[in-house]
Amino acid sequence: MELERRFLSLKSASRTSNGEIVVEILHSEIPILVVEVALLLYGLAETLRLHPVSGPSALLTLQPGDQVSRAIVERSRDGAFKFALGHNQAGFLQATLLRAYRDHMAETDHIHIEGLEGAAPFDLTIRFELAREPMSPEEAKRLMGD
């Protein structure tokens, strides 16, 4: 069976800056995105292209091997950034999206998936529309028992 190449049109934008591509995710896009990441993670899709309304696309694939420290990043001829993720990175993305769906907001306003384009660091940053307020220094201190 030939695996599908999946395509998800986003209503938000992306941009590149200083060694990263930042993809904005609207909260309404989380349910379909978590399903698409699951298809990729469980080997039911070959690729997932996140295609924003403006800015470059991010093309996600999986590397062989469960534990990788950095995604392998390449630029395609059409200007997209291809991220070959490890299963651990795709699982982290899936878990983050599932929690955001369950809690009606993300735990943080963004996450980074570290990558290398050649020898240079190049990350995939997912920025969430709805996220919890950051913890105050006082609250962190209280939780740490200081």
Please explain how this structure is put together.
The structure is a single chain. This protein is α/β, with parallel strands linked by helices and 146 residues long. The chain has one domain: 2-Layer Sandwich (Gyrase A, domain 2). Helix content is 25%, strand content 36%. The protein has three helices and eleven strands. It has helices at residues 30-41, 87-103, 137-143, and strands spanning 4-9, 14-17, 20-25, 45-51, 58-62, 71-75, 81-85, 110-113, 115-117, 120-121, 123-128. The protein has a seven-stranded mixed β-sheet. Strands 2-3-11-8 form a four-stranded mixed β-sheet, with no helix packed on it. A hairpin with a 2-residue loop joins strand 9 (115-117) and strand 10 (120-121). The longest helix is centred in the middle third of the chain and has 17 residues, at 87-103. The mean pLDDT is 92.
Secondary structural class: alpha/beta
Largest sheet: 7 strands, mixed
Oligomer: single chain
DSSP summary, beta strand count: 11
Return residue spans where pLDDT drops below 50 for at least 5 consecutive residues: none
Q: Write down the domain tally.
A: 1
> Mean of residue pLDDT?
92
Shape summary: globular
- What's the name of the CATH homologous superfamily? Domain of unknown function (DUF3480), N-terminal subdomain
Rg calc? 16 Å
Q: What share of residues is helical? A: 10-25%
- Record the strand order, biggest sheet: 1-4-5-7-6-9-10
CATH topology name, in short, is Gyrase A, domain 2
> What's the N-to-C terminus distance?
57 Å
CATH architecture: 2-Layer Sandwich
Percentage beta strand: 35-45%
- State the order of secondary-structure elements, H for helix, E for strand: EEEHEEEEHEEEEH
CATH class: Alpha Beta
- Continuous helix count: 3
